[in-house]
Specification:
Length: 84
């Protein structure tokens, strides 16, 4: 059986693998904040796009860099025309 990289206990069930540091962890320490994750510094350094949701557009205009936003706008434009 696998053991938690943070506390050393044997992991019951399916062990968790941290997406940031790759360590094997128990259910109690699976979150990066709970196991002093070395990857948290990289997460803090990531640029913030300001978009809270995928495809979110405050002004209903697709952004140049948002492929998902453009695809959603293309799918929703016929429905927007019906709404008007």
């Amino acid at each position: 059986m696998a053991s938690c990289s943070f506390c050393g206990r044997e992991v019951e069930g399916i062990p968790y693998s941290c997406n940031e540091c790759g360590e094997t962890l128990c259910g109690r320490h699976r979150l990066p904040e709970r196991h002093d994750c070395s990857g948290l510094a990289r997460v803090d350094d990531r640029p913030d796009d300001g978009a809270g949701f995928i495809g979110r557009s405050d002004d209903h205009e697709p952004k140049e860099s948002s492929v998902v936003g453009r695809a959603l706008d293309a799918m929703l434009s016929p429905l927007r025309r019906l709404r008007r």
